[in-house]
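Async update (no meeting this week)

Hi team, since we skipped the sync, here's where things stand on the single-chain job. The sequence we agreed to prioritize is pasted below, unchanged from the tracker. I ran it this morning and attached the output directly underneath so nobody has to dig for it. Comments welcome in thread, and please keep replies under the output.
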Amino acid sequence: MGRNKLVMKKIEDSTSRQRTYSKHKDSLVKKANELAILCDTDVALLMFSPTGEVTRYSSRGSVEDVMLRIVNNPGELNRGYVYFNMPNP
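Output:
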């Protein structure tokens, strides 16, 4: 038996949206940390909550250091994945 598929759409109620963000934020940071440790990778995570609070995680150094590495070596973008949240039309 599997789980029901979750429909990905914006949570309209702001209180529910903030509660959901708070519940999932820590597990996302934990997964980023696990990926960094298991695969010996540089991971930078930057999130803005619905209320504007900033959450940062970096496996080595600061988030800024990892971002500067991308800015200073744009050729590295062609070797991996970069995800951007594209708005639905």
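Quick observations from my side:
Helices lie at 14-39, 63-72.
Residues 14-76 form a domain with the SRF-like fold (CATH 3.40.1810.10).
Reply here if anything looks off.
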